[in-house]
Amino acid sequence: MNLKALCEEAGVKLYDSELVSENGKKIYRIYIMKEGGVNLDDCARLSEILSPIFDVEPPVNGEYFLEVSSAGLERKLSTLEHFEKSVGEMLKITTNEKEKIQGKLVKVEGENIFLQDDGREICIEFSQVKKAKTFIEW
Hints:
alpha+beta, three-stranded mixed beta sheet, cytoplasm, SH3 type barrels, 2 domains, single chain
């Protein structure tokens, strides 16, 4: 089963998935994104596509609940792929040396993340990123 392809069939992009335990229940959570934003219909459509497939090929062992959710406007970035999917957005990054940097993500090349802030380009190596998240300027 190719989760990425199934998301594209539903007209959305896979951002991430995780297995969490909340109140003693296993939840398999899928985060999606789409140009212009994700709405409830997008989540329902993907859920309807995945449910019969997961009945035959469960993504986890044992009983679980499937949850499809928007990745959100403000979300954490923990993989290079997350950074690649967020090009053009505003980021706040904390480095391993506790330096705080923010700017617009302009590109990702190899292990390097490039931000633009006040006309200057900042290059940060992915291994130096302790925390990163997108943010919206209101």
